[in-house]
Amino acid sequence: MTQSYLQMEFGARLKELRTRLNISQKELSEQTGLTLRTIQRIENNEVKPSLYSVKVLGEVLQADLSPCVKPSEAKPYEFNLTLKITDMNQFLHDLTVLFKTHWKTIFLIVLVIWLLTSYTDIKSGIMDGWNGK
């Protein structure tokens, strides 16, 4: 890549690479799993791509796009999980009460599901026994 190419905005570089490979935005969307709107927004420099987006775009376009993104430009892929212990304790208490009061119904539902999923095995076992095998 030339120095002027590296100085271009990421969206312009992505669009240039995509059009050079004759891939539409819709095709790129389908191949990467990113939404069409996300690709449009990245190419128009409306948003900065996440590291995940840079990775999947690079894989599909068969190019290393990481040098094209300054560390300050890319936003990290984040996953947040917040658990409230008091809510979890209440949930466990409610679950315990549910099992204590409705264990027969829960057992019956699990038994029916097991019978339905094992129907062909049970049927073949009965037929083998019936036929003396």
From TrEMBL:
<protein>
    <submittedName>
        <fullName>Helix-turn-helix transcriptional regulator</fullName>
    </submittedName>
</protein>
<dbReference type="Pfam" id="PF01381">
    <property type="entry name" value="HTH_3"/>
</dbReference>
<keyword id="KW-1133">Transmembrane helix</keyword>
<feature type="domain" description="HTH cro/C1-type">
    <location>
        <begin position="14"/>
        <end position="68"/>
    </location>
</feature>
<dbReference type="InterPro" id="IPR050807">
    <property type="entry name" value="TransReg_Diox_bact_type"/>
</dbReference>
<keyword id="KW-0238">DNA-binding</keyword>
<dbReference type="InterPro" id="IPR010982">
    <property type="entry name" value="Lambda_DNA-bd_dom_sf"/>
</dbReference>
<dbReference type="InterPro" id="IPR001387">
    <property type="entry name" value="Cro/C1-type_HTH"/>
</dbReference>
<keyword id="KW-0472">Membrane</keyword>
<keyword id="KW-0812">Transmembrane</keyword>
<feature type="transmembrane region" description="Helical">
    <location>
        <begin position="101"/>
        <end position="119"/>
    </location>
</feature>
